[in-house]
Amino acid sequence: MAQISFRISDESKIRADKVLEQQGYSAGSYLQGIVEYIAQNGTLPVVIEFRPAALNPEEVFQEAIFQSRETYVNWRTFCRNELQVNQMTPLDKLRTHIDAINTAYEFYQRNESVIRQAPSQMEKINGGDPFHPEMFSRCIEYFPPLFGYLRKAVSFVHMNNRPVQQGDLDEMEPVLVQAAKAIDELQAMANTSVSAETLARFMLRDIQEALSCAMESTREHISYMTARSWQQRMTLVLGEAEKKYKRLGTSEQDVALARLRHDTRRLATKVTEYVETTSEPMTGFDTNLLDQVVAFYNEVLSLSGYISASIRTDADQPGNSGNDSA
């Protein structure tokens, strides 16, 4: 007769014995029954199966656009801030962008079958059965070329045998223009009713409210509940700003909006940490980052030509006593 033995912790055996005893079994008899069942039937008595949650094609399509656009914007920022004519390409930082392009492409490849089902990018083929029209997935005309443009743009400066020349950047520019056009075409499929300019305005309005909430949440000597209420409101409106940012196309304000988004999210983390680790009387928040983000927000408004209420910090408002309610 064969004998099977294995080791488990005493705690696990005690817990298992309690469950089995309620059903009239011992651990040995129950496991023996499982092995005999497998031998007689050639299958497991119980199969634990993981079923992934169903994916929404429209959301996956939008996420693929967002990742592509984010890669494009970050590359533009890298070219503007890091690439210098007559200097060597910083290859360590270049690798980050190569990895980002590969990651965005892998996401598209992995989810291509789902993305192609997104209703917003489907187009009816003329000449077919009017009652059962055939539909064509338009996004496949843009995603693969888009990643090709981004990789080609990298190739102009992916070198370690000579410095970057102005000609490299000049040749790269039309390729990036093509990438931007592909992103805009894809975004236009997902956004059929709201323009990029309108989305940018709404995003800035949400960020304005989030910054105002951050200032209220970090005022000196307010109650914890008041600070918490303002912090939660800040988190909520930043979530709305994030949704709008993901739906933007490309524009001249790409780099500025990306930086504003990054800085605001960093500030929100600081505010949340402050509220969660401070007790009454609420005091001690370092406002340097808050002041910097507010100043940059106002700068973006000015550069973009948007007419919106600028934000003033407490330092700009003598005698401001605020209120103690959210």
Architecture overview:
One of its GO terms (molecular function) is sequence-specific DNA binding. Keywords: Plasmid. It holds the Pfam family RelB. There is one protein chain. The chain is mostly helical and 326 residues long. It has 3 domains: 32 residues, no CATH class; 134 residues, Up-down Bundle (Four Helix Bundle (Hemerythrin (Met), subunit A)); 109 residues. It has 10 helices and 2 strands, in the order ααααββαααααα. It has a two-stranded antiparallel sheet. 24% of the residues are buried.
Topology:
Elements: H1 10-22, H2 27-41, H3 57-81, H4 91-115, E1 122-124, E2 135-137, H5 143-155, H6 166-190, H7 196-217, H8 224-246, H9 254-277, H10 288-304
Antiparallel strand pairs: 1-2
Helix pairs in contact: 3-4, 3-6, 4-5, 5-6, 7-8, 7-9, 7-10, 8-9, 9-10
Describe, in short, the structure shown.
Helix content is 62%, strand content 2%. With 326 residues, the chain is mainly α. InterPro entries: Arc_rbn_hlx_hlx, RelB/DinJ.
Keywords, please?
single chain; about 325 residues; mainly alpha; Four Helix Bundle (Hemerythrin (Met), subunit A); 3 domains; two-stranded antiparallel sheet; 10 helices; about 60% helix; sequence-specific DNA binding; plasmid; Arc_rbn_hlx_hlx; RelB/DinJ
